[in-house]
Amino acid sequence: MLSRKDEVFKLLNSVNGKLTANDVAEKLQMDRANASRYLNELFKEEQIEKLPGKPVLYQAFTQADVKSGIGGTHSAFDRLIGSAQSLKVSIQQAKAAILYPPNGLHTLILGKTGTGKSLFAECMYKFARESEMVGKKAPFVSFNCADYAQNPQLLFGHIFGVIKGAYTGAEQTREGLLAKADGGILFLDEIHRLPPEGQEMLFTFIDKGEYRPLGESQAVHTAQVQIIGATTESPDNFLLETFTRRIPMTITLPPLAERQLEERYQLIEFFLGQEATRLHQTIRVHRQALMAFLLYHASANVGQLQRDLKLACAKAFLHYKTKATNYILIEQDDLPIYVQKGLLHLKDEPEKMNRLIDVNKTIFKFYDTSEANDIAIEDVDDVYQAIQTKADQLMKEGKDQSELEEALYMDVDQYFHEYMGQLPTQQSAKDIIGPEVWELTDQVYHLAEERLDRKYNEKMRFAFALHLQSTIERIREQKHIVHPDLNNIRKKYSKEFQAAIDISGLLEQALGIEIPFDEIGFLTMFLTEEVVESIFTQEAQVEVIVMMHGRSTATSMVETVQELLNIETGTAMDMPLSMEVKVMYEKVKAKVKQLNPTKGVLILSDMGSLTSFGNMMTEELGIRTKTVSMTSTPVVLEAIRKASLGRGLEDIYQSCQQLFENKYKAQILRTKPTKNAVIFTCFTGEGVAEQLRARVAPVIDESKVEIIVLQFLHKEAFRERIDQLMEEYNILAIMGSVAFQYRDIPYFSALEVFSDGGLDIVKRIINDEVPYEQLISSLEGNLKEVDSPEQLVYFLRKIISELQVQMNLVLEPGVDIGIILHLAFLVERMKLGGVDREFPNIDEFTKKHMIEMQITQQMMENINIEYSIIVPQSEIAYLTQMMTANKVITKEQ
Q1: Quick one: which of 470, 562, 605, 788 is 20 to 30 A from 391 by CA?
Q2: Is 29 left (phi over 0), alpha (psi -120 to 50) or beta?
Q3: Residue 877 predicted with pLDDT over 50
Q4: Cα(759)–Cα(748) distance, rounded to whole angstroms?
Q5: What region holds the PRD domain (predicted)?
Q6: CA–CA dist 873, 531 (Å, integer)
Q7: Which of 844, 792, 777, 855 is nearest to 823 (CA)?
């Protein structure tokens, strides 16, 4: 008697067509859920074919399908998203490599991190089985060469096998991967990490089908194995020419940025379907969040897209479990800042976006259905389980909703990164990380404990060993890393920084590499108890202090927010106009001491001297601070809400900045109005503003530049007025008694305008529009790889302006034009793949101008992202040199 599953299989083979789970259930009079389960089991056993779409269709394999290979309608590759579009050529190459007689072609898969090289290799294996080029039970053996790259003997032993006694520690004979893969496929990921002698051993096997395990002196072993290698690097740089000649097929997988928007939507739909299945619930996504995922720059490609979606789902699940929401909903606020920045590109492909995302819908649903997933969902012990377990525990303890949210939110990022990073356990890590790294780790902490008179536990040593492993690889692969807060680390942890310098010398001598200064900053963090402990322990809440001019402005704002949120987080500090600044500062400092913040202080201020309090308190009290100026009620609401949830200082700060900055960043490159204007402002619109006007008017050509005097009573109203004026005028500068940094408009204080040389700088800023217009005109016919020279010039102008602010300098007249011209042609050259030039004595220059190089590096990231290039370190040094060598005056702090 046939089993129910056999009945389903027989039905599909008897029907000349496609059936849904409902069709099968009706024809065989069974429950639809059971029909779906049997169909999926048959599909996983590769006895039937499943066609993606809604509804999911199933059909039996035909003999023609199996034997035709390339000509067959369906194959393992058809389940890949993009199989008929961006991956079409790659799949044709892969099929040719598998079907080439007599035993297929050895293949090298090229692609950046996260492009799906491992999955593609698995599809090649499945296609080989479908087309009967290998047997149904042929092995597919996967191995990552990077796992043992620090220990060549161990690496070779894994691939070729080991004879007992071949080397110290080889206590028994062990067959290698070639033996295990006999009759099938061996997939070697990160094959560029295979040393030259290993490559020679492998191409000997490719030539003759013979190999010798380590320690074997007589017997020759044979195997029939097709090799598929994968690498993120250029083969010419890391693989022997004699080796690559023996790999006749090279397949390149496109990065996510080069794949169609429709494919990215399908990927998002697929990954969210997986998460919905894990959770057994529908996942809802707000329109803004979905558009951000479609448009953001995922530097690690499909792999990063999957990780970022997983994180968003984890945070949405957290809100749901703490009953902050009634269902699982991903909102824009749940996304990292770099994902949210995808919304800045909304205007890039409006037609495709409107076609993909229904303009009439706000919430999009992704359903729990195992039929939509080809991959079994087996990882039960994941981030969701961790949240669920802890939520259950806290509920038993009687925690209310706000306490649950606070306790769990502080854990979710840690749970997520541990899970998604798939860090090995300490024991298994010791098997993967070479003994050289563990030995160096012991030396590092022996030196640190001696110099700093403190003890470091095993958890810190383990974390450092993982970090050191990746650092060595990164430096040897010449990949640059920037520490975002190097100068503060150096000042705040001077003893640890000095110890880190000594440690870097130890590492340089032991490894034969040069440790860059930014890396010394990271080494310092692993020596500092409070920083390292913060990785593994929960911190207290960020303190939010709202400071405003006026007798009750701050108090009123904070009380409003506290009432709206029904919480007590947040401190208000009012500054009557009669109060002296130094008195206010002492009052705020005393309050901060009383609060004793361990997680940092976020200062929300309105204007003037209050905006400088944060930096002073950081220096004086040694606490972490961030300051957001020109604060509004929505900003206070966002800051206090996130602080109450236990968010970190940087996270809260970025969210506050985003509220009123993001929409302007997208407009930096807008076409400028034809009329120019300069704005003078003060509280009355008469006193200081009129004096400034009298000072500056003689250097203004009023036939080309209009003078506008405005009263500054409230920043929001003033900002709205500026927005209105910008629709009509290109505002060259704002000058006044109230600090007002807005968009990319230069601001000059009264002190700067009246200082020696200040008027000359103002004159140059106001009258430099003609040179920029001439520059744009001259570039129009000379830049072939840049779509809009005008946009490039204004973008670079913003970069140079920001560099002057960050470096605390002002360039000589005309130098900025020259630098912009230099950068414009640099962008053109880099997009054409031009070879970068050397910078003489770059190491010495970098050490001398460490902070300036760091600032320039960070600003160049904007160019890298905007124009899809990588500005080399030598050009960053040249730009830093141009900036520092051509300064005319140092700005007042």
Answers
A1: 562
A2: left
A3: yes
A4: 10
A5: 432-537, 787-893
A6: 29
A7: 792
**What's at 576, amino acid-wise?**
P
**Of 319-328, 438-447, 477-486, which range is least confident?**
477-486
- All structural domains of the chain, each given as residue ranges with its CATH number in brackets, are 4-60 (1.10.10.10), 87-254 (3.40.50.300), 257-366 (1.10.8), 417-536 (1.10.1790.10), 543-665 (3.40.50.510), 675-767 (3.40.50.2300), 772-886 (1.10.1790.10)
Cβ-defined contacts of 348-357 (< 8 Å, 24+):
348/295, 349/261, 352/261, 352/262, 353/261, 353/291, 353/294, 353/295, 356/261, 356/262, 356/265, 356/294, 357/287, 357/290, 357/291, 357/294
Q: Could you give the CA distance from residue 617 to residue 627 in angstroms, rounded to a whole number?
A: 11
- Element of type H or E holding 778: helix 769-779
And the tokens for 118? 């491992």
In sequence order, what E strands does 598-647 have? Answer: 601-605, 625-628
Least confident segment among 285-289, 552-556, 684-688, 723-727:
684-688
> Cβ contacts of residue 403 below 8 Å, gap of 6+?
394
Read off the pTM: 0.44
Tens-digit pLDDT profile for residues 738-756: 667 666 577 777 777 777 6
Dihedral sign for Cα atoms in the order 53, 59, 64, 65: positive
Q: What is the DSSP letter of 676?
A: E
pLDDT band at residue 125 under the 50/70/90 scheme: very high
Q: Which two tokens stand for residue 100?
A: 């080439």
Measured distance CA(26)–CA(492) in Å, rounded: 72
Q: How far is CA 391 from CA 329, 364, 648, in A?
A: 18, 27, 21
Measured CA to CA, the distance from residue 167 to residue 584 in angstroms comes to 72
pLDDT greater at residue 382 or residue 392: 392
Instruction: Show the tokens assigned to 223.
Output: 């195997």
Residues 257-316 pLDDT 10s: 999 898 999 999 989 988 888 888 889 999 889 999 999 988 889 988 988 898 888 888
Q: Report, in angstroms and rounded to the nearest whole number, the Rg of the chain calculated over CA atoms.
A: 31
Residue matched to tokens 């002073």: 616
Examine the pLDDT at 669 and tell me if it is beyond 60. no
- Residue 372, pLDDT > 70, answer no
Tokens representing 610 are 């209050």
